[in-house]
Amino acid sequence: MTTGHPPADSDDHALAAWLATTAGERLLEVREGGLTGRELKDAGDLAAHELLMELLATSRPDDAVLSEEGKDDKRRLDARRVWIVDPLDGTREFSEPPRDDWAVHVALWENGELVAGAVAQPALGRTFHTGEPPVVPPRTSERPRIAVSRTRPPAFVEALAAEMDAELVPMGSAGVKVISVVRDLTDAYVHAGGQYEWDNAAPVAVARSAGLFCSRVDGSELRYNQDDVSLPDLVVCRPELSTQILEFVGRHGTA
Questions:
Q1: What are 142-155's pLDDT values in tens digits?
Q2: CA–CA dist 215, 232 (Å, integer)
């Protein structure tokens, strides 16, 4: 694969988009290489991680990196800029061609805030990023739609859906679920089953740039580049649904 070079004089938004897109192209090549099952999953994780590490070392050599597939170098806690990446989000779906609900996440945290992000959905040939904030289409469904895991939908979300008269829409990849709200395929993604910073940093950056509501399920702020990288719950939704969702969680919890 010829990776090429990042856009000339690329800002962080353009670089994030290029990195996610380029890693996605590499993953499509791996997917077409004849591997299956665990071998395909492992090859995809490794190929995308190694490529992103190489490209970031070249493009932003002074920045720290936190990757799902890499060792957590705690020096990032003293860094001003940290790239938070998930080289392959939705490994299960990646290993099940022709499924398209898997993604590449690239986000940049700087001085306490997410400042850039990109989510590539390679099988769709699309990359959503903060350099060109997506415009969320007007809602097309009368009933709210909530994105949930296709394999592990949490029970409390089923109760939330019943209260809201909402439809549950199963799909893979945390990033794909967040972007489904951006794309008007769903209206909310509510999760409390455990995630890490790399699972949602880039999707949240993109969702915020599109004007969507993003928070923990208790309404508190999502914080990144923490010592403990566990970030177990989040809400991403159309702003008009946020109060109802947070109030439900406040009354009933997520058990």
A1: 999 999 988 777 78
A2: 12
